[in-house]
Amino acid sequence: MGAAMFFGCAGVAFGPALALVLLTVAAEPLRVIILVAGAFFWLVSLLLASLIWFVSVRLSDREDARLQFGLLVFGAAVSVLLQELFRFAYFKLLKKADEGLAMVSEDGRSPISLKQMAYVSGLSFGIISGVFSVINILADSMGPGVVGIHGDSPYYFLTSAFLTMALVFLHTFWGVIFFDACEKRRYWCLGLVVASHLVTSGLTFLNPWYEASLVPIYIIVVCMGAWAFFTAGGSIHNVLKCLSCKREEDSHVMMYSALRVPLED
Amino acid sequence: MTELSAHLPQFQHGQLTENFPDNHLSNTNDNSERRRHDNSERRRNDNPESETNGQPQNNLQQVVDQDDEEDEELTLKYGAKHVIMLFVPVTLCMVVVVATIKSVSFYTRKDGQLIYTPFTEETETVGQRALNSILNAAIMISVIIVMTILLVVLYKYRCYKVIHGWLIISSLLLLFFFSFIYLGEVFKTYNVAMDYITLALMIWNFGVVGMICIHWKGPLRLQQAYLIMISALMALVFIKYLPEWTAWLILAVISVYDLVAVLCPKGPLRMLVETAQERNETLFPALIYSSTMVWLVNMAEEDPEAQRKASKNSTYDKQGSQPQSDTAEADDGGFSQEWQQQRDSRIGPIESTPESRAAVQALPSNSQTSEDPEERGVKLGLGDFIFYSVLVGKASATASGDWNTTLACFVAILIGLCLTLLLLAIFKKALPALPISITFGLVFYFATDNLVQPFMDQLAFHQFYI
Q: What ranges does the record give for the region Disordered, renumbered to this chain (chain B) (predicted)?
């Protein structure tokens, strides 16, 4: 272990998230605020879920291992549902903020669109969720030790990192799809997002049988990614156009007589 | 405990700004003309980076006629930028403190307590411990209240020299002595061999440049960096010497005190701000982190619009109440003798006499009143930095949830700061920056440490993800 494991796993888990934040969020103050506020909402949802789990554990028999396991699964399910509920609450808040921003802006348009807000909020949920899941593990990976010395999987750190990366992507995609579904009132989309979150969380219960958990989760990531891409307005045509790097012909051809002296600033 | 303001007075002579075309002072009578000229120039220079959603630049006419509504609009629009201007230094300070706590074990070792917290927490019973910590917190808070009242009294009776001396001594202590100890501990942690001569040179340079930047003039970024560093040092001292329960209690009580002192009509801090406004002075510019240049007021307000804005500028820090705390520059409105001599040598002896002030006051009031909103900065007192860092540092030092708790407190404090700035934009007067953030921070600390950490621990044990 040591620094190599730490940096490797941190890079795997948070590399894409860091790149996305640096390229798309860090430059705009409003997006940074939305990022931090999204993290706050996720934290509150986690707090409530932990409270419920804690109370249920306190009220139950500590010795019964199966019961404790069942309560953990129950706690995880409650947490997933609460996360989606708070995502909806965040959507409501952002919608209101969007209207407020549009009102105070000079031209009646808000400086940030709802789709951008959806993306940033999804990213924020993903980052904070990933961080909370994996940061202590990463901190431990810096120190001395042997992974899986008692018969557990020796790939614990690496698979945790990959799962975290998947989770970051998933939350981003879910954010985009969710907000769009709420906006257009397509409730079946909402249900599908919640269901896929539950399925993803459920698949992690199959750890350490990583073939059964990691591979399907990544398949879900790819599907959600495609769905979010099309929801956000992308299309095959756009992708081809982007990949072809062809400079678009300027369709504005000015006649000489139509040229005017530019207005004084 | 310390406040934020959304407005800064307009004048920026003497200090350099990045895109200021010319900065020498012309005749005082041309002051307003020049300011308007400079503002419009600056606006043009700033336009590429400004946050106007692609709007054409406001022409001068429009801006001159700015009324309250537009003012509010701009405040809200640039509010996001101000929030980030405060997020960054607060984050930096917390990162420094947490990094130090995690690596240098000196600051988590129990080596006694301050004399302000005489009761020990190593008691037999929980009840005794609780009682001791309550007594400790009470003593600390009374010390702070007494110091603040002393500061207000000194300020009211214009004992600027005493305040100045007090603050210089505290900043000397921080910049030389505490940083020497910090450096020593860092060297011990990383087993770096160092000789006294090199050390003396380093500390000397660090301290002297710090004193100059903080109390006099210096590049803005350097001044901000020094303020962050001394806040971090102070926070580390508190984290080391305050026992656990006492620390949490002090944090809670001090946010209540901050609320009371700033908002109640007879609160000491409010009186401080109002006295400063009456006298048209800036309050201790070096005790406050400012995100833009510190403006030195050169002459009395000539124009009601700007006067109104100046009166909204309330920035102060009751950090002066702490003995080892920071730095300030009070007294002659910020104009020390050296500054005046320097100014005289640069531009010739120009003093604003009552006649010149009256003359400028008689000027037509279409002088530039609207500040370029981008130049409006926000100010946050150093005490806020210190207490935010104490909270996060204590969370990282003593929490069983470790990084989860630290991050939760960090997010909570940032959100509290965001909400405080939102309230500031709405109410436009000095507001305490501690209550909301510290409340969120405390709630999240205890909740994460006791509820979330066992849950996440169990999930991580089975490698479940939620």
A: 1-66, 306-351, 357-376
